[in-house]
Amino acid sequence: EVLRDIKSKGRKKWKLDSGYSRRSISETAMFRFKAIFGDRLSSRNFDAQAQEAIIKTKILNLFKCPAVL
Hints:
The protein has helices spanning 2-9, 11-18, 20-37, 46-62. The longest helix has 18 residues, at 20-37. The chain is built from 4 helices and no strands. It is elongated.
């Protein structure tokens, strides 16, 4: 079904309509996050985990990403 949709609309239009680009960007961001910081949080309680995730995200945003430049 997806292949038929791509063929009828074209790849660019399909990506816009399906939200593919947004998904791809978010999946890449999560891959980078996990590759750099690991896939687990070290804090034990929820509030500390939330703060840890925020700090790690802010650090990740400081890195220069060649794909974005």
